[in-house]
Design a protein that fits this description.
With 568 residues, the chain is α/β, with parallel strands linked by helices. The chain is built from 24 helices and 19 strands. Helix 18 runs antiparallel to helix 22 and helix 21 runs antiparallel to helix 22. About 1% of the residues have low confidence. The structure holds zinc ion.
């Protein structure tokens, strides 16, 4: 048995692992080891944590909070590198001895780490095991994202992996490079879609957009000192002109995270304190969703797949920015993708790569607009065309012409509800009879946060409030009579205390029938179209959301948040 193995894992557990499992455990960073151990022992992570606790004699800490006094005892770099967090000081011993320091750790302490700790504090350490995600989250909350990189001064501590490049590590420029890379890596980990660097009076604020909501990112206290260097670093990465500070600029960054390369769009604008920089993270986790994963019910999938088999016609997905429209279109493309169909897409940006599909990026700055690209694509003998977005009359007209000449066309529109897409096209100046004959299906959609399955709890409902919410959502208020309890968010270490994990779609599917054709020709309002569609069985976004609430996938608050939101 290798000595290094027993230094990081109790012998009783080492004996249960194979050679390769042991090796990957030794090589993994401390915060990843629990997941590897769980997989090797075929246990859940929670069970693996208990097994580890039993084998090491350490206890498992839950409901962790960091202690402000204890926090200052250990430098941020050590905390980051070893994924440990000081949680409290012990009782005073009374005999003049220092009280013990309690620390939570993602993995049992080893000798090297214990040695480093001793160089900073003479207090006796008391170790507690904890869920690695929670430890990591507490480190970010208490020390700030990337604080391990930007630490002031030379405290003599050098992270193990950079020991060989000591000169570089103390260099401020290198620190900023590492900091920026930490901020982006953390965003990738949190599945953020955007990162905003916002210079404010006396501070540089950093925020992520996660699951559609802005989340302030805790930052190191000394961040302002590095503000100019951080902005310059971002501009260099995006190949922008760093001396130009008065004009907005656009660029891109190719960021390497583990094995994937991330495409990041960068935009700068001058604001009163300094340039504000926004990063949009594209092809983030290139995980393609199936219609199932999007949260479509069997009936919704049936209604949509039926039309996906049509040889021609237009299928539109509508909703505000960030409602998952392109994710849905991508799922449809994957569904029909086959060697006997020629599929061409025109996108801005290309968010997912689909094997076998010809994907094209529009470049309005050199005159390649959606409308222009579409004209050319029609000469390329396509069967199916996906147009990222219909923004103007030009694009709308060509898309309609394409569908009427035997192509299946997918696209998106910015409208609140599904019937609104029809009136929007007519308002753009398209002849109603063209709209009525080309559009086969309109799907309005929103994303709501999904309740964390580890901590959500059934609670009795307040009937009066429920009736009010149902009325706002346009649902039958009588339904409240049959519902006694609904699931509510609680918050646990797995969901970072938010009570939610991931998102799920809600859908409104609008299919034109003969009666609606007549209404479109008469240029009737969206309201009239909606009423008619509902009489023919269309389920609105509000109703679809309520179904998801009843099924325990999300909450009324979430549905109300996305359904009543005004169009941007
Ligand atoms: Zn949870």
């Amino acid at each position: 048995m290798p000595a290094v193995a027993t230094d990081i894992l109790p012998a009783s557990l080492v004996a249960q692992l194979g050679e390769t499992q042991l090796q990957s455990l030794i090589e993994a960073p401390r915060e990843k080891r629990l997941a590897i151990l769980a997989a090797a022992l075929q246990l859940s992570e929670a069970a693996a944590l208990s097994a580890l606790a039993a084998a090491t004699g350490l206890d498992t800490a839950s409901n962790l909070e960091a202690d402000a006094e204890a926090r200052g005892l250990i430098p941020a770099r050590l905390v980051h590198d070893y994924q440990i967090i000081p949680i409290r000081l012990g009782e005073e011993a009374g005999d003049g001895a220092q009280s013990a320091l309690h620390l939570a750790t993602a993995w049992p302490p080893d000798n090297v780490m214990a040695d480093w700790l001793r160089t900073f504090t003479s207090r006796r350490p008391v170790w507690h095991l904890a869920v690695p995600e929670r430890v990591h989250q507490l480190i970010i909350e208490n020390y700030g994202v990337g604080s391990g990189s930007l630490e002031d001064g030379d405290d003599g501590y050098v992270a193990p992996e950079i020991q060989q490049h000591t000169e570089e590590a103390v260099d401020e420029e290198a620190a900023v490079v590492r900091f920026v890379s930490d901020v982006i890596s953390q965003a990738v980990e949190d599945q953020a879609t955007d990162i905003h660097f916002e210079p404010q009076e006396g501070q540089l604020r950093i925020r992520y957009r996660v699951d559609g909501l802005l989340v302030p990112v805790p930052v190191p206290e000394n961040l302002l000192r590095f503000q100019d260097a951080i902005i310059s670093r971002l501009k260099i990465m995006a190949r922008l002109n760093i001396s130009e500070r008065r004009l907005p600029q656009d660029g891109r960054i190719n960021f390497r995270a583990d094995s994937t390369v991330l495409d990041i769009r960068v935009s700068t604008i001058p604001t009163i304190y300094a340039e504000s920089i926004s990063l949009r993270l594209l092809n983030q986790k290139k995980e393609a969703y199936t219609m199932d994963r999007l949260g479509m019910s069997a009936e919704e999938q049936r209604q949509i797949t039926q039309i996906l088999d049509y040889p021609h016609g237009i299928i539109l997905v509508t909703g505000p920015t960030g409602s998952g429209k392109s994710t849905s279109l991508n799922a449809f493309l994957r569904k029909i993708n086959s060697t006997d169909l020629r599929i061409i897409t025109i996108e801005d940006p290309i968010e997912y790569e689909v094997p076998g599909v010809n994907q094209m990026q529009v470049r309005p700055e050199i005159g390649l607009t959606f409308a222009d690209a579409l004209r050319h694509v029609l000469r390329q003998d396509p069967d199916v065309i996906m147009v990222g977005e219909i923004r103007d009359k030009d694009t709308a007209e060509i898309a309609i012409r394409a569908s009427l000449t035997g192509h299946l066309v997918f696209s998106t529109l910015h409208t609140n509800d599904a019937p609104g897409a029809i009136t929007r096209l007519v308002d753009m100046g398209i002849e109603p009879f063209l709209v009525a004959s080309a559009i086969e299906l309109v799907i309005a959609q929103r994303l709501v946060r999904r309740l964390c399955s580890d901590c959500s709890r059934l609670e009795p409902v307040n009937k009066i409030k429920l009736r009010e919410s149902l009325a706002i959502l346009g649902c039958n208020e009588e339904e409240s009579d049959w519902v006694e309890s609904l699931k509510l968010p609680v918050g646990c270490d797995r969901c970072r205390g938010t009570g939610y994990r991931g998102r799920i779609g809600i859908f409104e599917i609008f299919r034109l029938n003969d009666e609606m054709h007549e209404l479109v020709l008469k240029r009737e309002s969206t309201r009239t179209l909606t009423d008619c569609a509902r009489r023919h069985g269309m389920r609105t976004l509000g109703q679809s959301g309520w179904e998801k609430v009843k099924a325990g996938h999300t909450t009324l608050e979430e549905v109300l948040r996305v359904v009543t939101v005004a169009e941007k």
